[in-house]
Amino acid sequence: MLIYALIAGLLFGLYFSLIGLGLNLVFGVMRIVNLAHGDFLMLGGFAAYLLFTWRAINPICSVFLVFVVFGLIGWPLYYMFVPRLQAAKDPEMLSLILFFGFSQVVEAFATIRFGTSEYSIPGDVLGREPWHILTQTFPASWMVSGIASAVCIGLVYLYLYRTRLGYLTRAVMSQRDEALSTGINVHVVSAFAFGLSLALAAVAGVFAPFMFGSILPAMGVGVTITSFAVIVVGSLGQPLGTLLGGMIYGVALMFMQTYFSSWANLLPYLLLIFILLVRPTGLLGKRVRHA
Amino acid sequence: MRRSMCHLIFILVPVVIAFALLPRVYSNHLLLFNFVVFLVLAQGINVIYGFSGYLPFGYVGFFGAGAYGFSLLVLHLHAHPLPALAAGAVAALLLGVILTPLLRLEGAYFAIATLAASEAVLQVISNPNLTDITQGPYGVRLSGVYAPRFAYGMAVAILAFTFLVVIFLRNSRFGLALQAIRENPISAGMAGVNVVRARVIAWLVSALIAGLIGAVYAWYISVFYPETVFDLGMSIFAIVFALFGGTATILGPLLGVAILYGVYNGIGIATPQYFQLVYGALIMALVLFLPNGVLSLARRWGLNVP
Question: How many CB atoms lie within 10 A of CB A262?
Fold first, then answer.
């Protein structure tokens, strides 16, 4: 029981980190909150569903396709919204409202196309044999999703710490104005981060039918709140804190589900409020809070 | 103080008279009641967001707390609706006091923390283990006190109270102090404004407003589920209505509710997803082109809007 909850928690933790990573990247680089993050995840999930039902493409292959397509969609979206937002008086607040509107539009289109019912992909397309770890049995789809999440997180780490563009991205994250004055093309860096964030959300979406059990057009808001909880626990604006946040969140969720199942839904909210009050900058946060 | 008298006579009185008389000429009373509810909620958002700059996504938490404060007193003590209304107000105020530490957060942190708080209250109330107390997820039935006309009257009275609060904030030193804090808390503090006290007062007043209207809502509807009174959509609607018209004004939320909720009732009920589409697009256009609300157009033309 204990070992099961722990390992399942770590698997889900990896997955939740992947969900939060993109949102945190956007917040760190642009200081805006993309409330439509969960809706991009939902779109990624439906893309995988359509590819699977129409052309029988395995979700593992759709990951690459979805990554490229959503990354490309991110560029025009960035130039449509973000520069205009950042010229406004209170970008953070306005971004909440703007992207809420955007998420409504996305959700409406998805509802018009798919209705309000739930869709799922059979779990055995990711492997038929369940995996045995330390006497416990886990569905193969969980293992594959967890491993894929770990790979994505590792690649983002390599991008941020081992490439030139990643170096510039971190510069914009820590001091936007100084980055601008040293001649970094902030818009290109930000647009790239925005595209990457959408691509990560969509990749997480591909695994959503397996980890959440099913996907539906209205799932976006809930996913956004969950990812917000994850990144706040880790710390806003620091992408790798997300990994810690996701792990804590995943393990805590699994323990709650195992031992106090009727109160498990309360967990993300209480965790979020508690961390915000005790350490408003998150567990790894460095910035001092104002007032 | 002459200006505030003008606002009382030319805004508060016509609005209250209109909503008091409309049920006689218009038969869809539920729709009228919903208009009053959203008008009150939008003005409540105006108090906390417009004047003090805190955007509570979980504003509906106070609404739900009010509704359940009312229902619990009626269910367990078989109280008369009027003391039960007071209980609803007290419940919302209590929640407000508990959540006061959240005011230390700013911007997006505050918005999301209140959202989480509201969801947490919902999860507690709808927990099946508490069915004996709150009826859990199975919803509340208050048919014993069902009195729609009386409840509608009380809703209009709360509307009047809410408008009074906003007119006071618009014309008083205290309202000016709040706006100064919103613009720059440090300078306001230097100028002798008690920042913490002013913020807490604004926060609790807006909680009280939502709690009162939540209690009346429970009374009027009399059969509801936890998800009905803690529906996140309600806070979002109220926020968008207030922003659409223009915050920190008296007329802005009124305009927003009249236009947007009118549109919603025109096309939204038959085809919700198309409405959602129009609505989302409208919100985006608003933020991108008119971030200070429709009334800011009038201000740009040199008119002084109340």
Answer: 14
- Residue spans per domain, chain A: 2-123+139-278
Statement: the pTM of the whole predicted model exceeds 0.95 = no
Q: Residue A113: which residues within 8 A CB-CB, separation 6 or more?
A: none
Contact of A35 with chain B, judged by CB distance below 8 Å, is answered with no
**Each residue of B217-253: b (16+ CB within 10 Å) or e?**
bbbbbbebebebbbbbebbbbbbbbbbbbbbbbbbbb
Q: Hey, which bits of B22-177 come out as E strands? A: 140-141
CA distance A235 to chain B (A): 11
Three-state DSSP at B269 gives coil
The whole-angstrom separation of Cα B49 and Cα B40 is 14
CATH value of A2-123+139-278 in 1.10.10, 1.10.3470, 4.10.860, 1.10.287: 1.10.3470
Pair of tokens at residue A11? 């698997």
Q: pLDDT tens digits, residue range A215-261?
A: 888 888 888 878 887 887 777 767 778 888 888 888 888 888 887 77
| Nearest-by-CA chain B residue for A262 | B127
- Indicate yes or no: CB of A101 within 8 angstroms of CB of B117: no
**Integer CA distances (angstroms), B264 to A108, A138, B78, B258, in order:** 15, 47, 37, 10
Q: How far is CA A21 from the centre of its chain?
A: 5
Show contacts of B279-283: CB within 8 Å, 24+ apart: B279/A101, B279/A104, B279/B240, B280/A100, B280/A101, B280/A102, B280/A103, B280/A104, B280/A105, B280/A106, B280/A107, B280/A108, B281/A101, B281/A105, B282/A101, B282/B244, B283/A97, B283/A98, B283/A100, B283/A101, B283/A104, B283/B240
Distance CA A5, CA A258 (A): 7
**The pLDDT of residue A283:** 57
Contact predicate B61/B114, CB 8 Å: yes
- The answer to whether the Cβ–Cβ distance between B276 and A98 falls below 8 Å is no
* Tens-digit pLDDT profile for residues B10-60: 888 888 888 888 888 888 888 899 999 999 999 999 999 989 888 898 899
